[in-house]
Signal peptide peptidase SppA
Amino acid sequence: MIPGTPEPNGSAAPLGPSSPQGQASQSGQPQAAGCTNAQQAQPQAAQPAQSQAQGQPQQAASSSFGSTQGYSSQGAPQPPYVQQPYAGGYAAPQYAYASAQAAQPKKGGKGGWIALGIILFAIVFVFTIGALSCSHTVSSLTSGADAFSSMSEEVVTSGDSVGVIDMMGTIQYDGSSCSPEGLRELLKEAEENPDIKAVVLRVDSGGGTATAGEEMAAYVRDFSKPIVVSSASMNCSAAYEISSQADYIYVNETTAIGAIGTIMQVQDISGLLDMLGINIENIASADSKDSSYGTRPLTDEERQYYQDLVDEINETFIQNVADGRGMSVEEVRELATGMQFAGKTSVENGIADEIGTYDDALGKAAELGGITGDGYEVVNLTSTSSDLSYLMDLLGADSGSAAENIDLSQLSAEDLVNLLKEEGVLS
């Protein structure tokens, strides 16, 4: 289960909407170095001289910034140019500095924000590392199928063919070929095409959510034509659960494969919230309803409950592997340490069948599909990703994503919307 700031209130009084100097005062940033107060910024002698040049006494100037703003000392209404007397290049900085002093942060405040930034960066870093590791996770995300819909692109064949499905990325509900919806559509297309005699599943994945892996394993198991797995650099956890249902599994000597196990993450950020002075009170219908929200530590009973839940889900994983590989549950359980195996070891312990390349997998698929000779066509079965799948790729959730050429940190919200419109995701 991978779950998912006060602003200083001291603001300077603006000089007025019609004055550029008034805008500068709101930022509280001096325009000349070395000026620490209004007296340093503006010589006293300059004020009466300039005020007289404008035809207004100093008394009227001060009243325009007091409680009687907009009125003279006699109570008569004044036009805007009288409300905000201009005394040359030094007048606006004078008020800017005077106002900015009231908005100065307390000593050490900047350091606090820096510390907070470092802490938040560390949290994001930990989540990122967890997302990239081999995983068979219990996900806290639930969704409707409509948001993750996927369509396969029509494939035209002209004879005996071997279909190829790329399963590269995180196993999740995103409408791609790494999702139950996407894989189902591609296998259905291969099933209904009489020219496609077998399928090669090209896998490069560290795993993903347990439920998505279970569904996809069922689709592979129920496919009537031969399926051969070609493992790239990684075939782990939920991805391996899916692969275990195939008829034959190839690995490279340096492939990381297996990682049979299930993990659930329950974050506890209550200590961080206390340090930041943030209090979150959960109103729940049951005592343990907020146990996975991360705002408090787990109780011993809750921790044991989640452990039992993970163990139960992992038993489904182990049973699927045992059924798919023709092994006993006890044999698989001995291998279910959560650790990966290299290619040679995986062949020795029964996790995989043979060391071989992608071309070897194509040849094996053709053989199992009853194709004789080398005269067969290789057909890439691809899906049209859903909007959510594209967005997740854009954010770097998948390998080989659009994020390789886009620095999202430099995009504003408007830029991102425009980018999605250009790609046809938004209208």
Notes: The two ends are 34 Å apart (CA to CA).
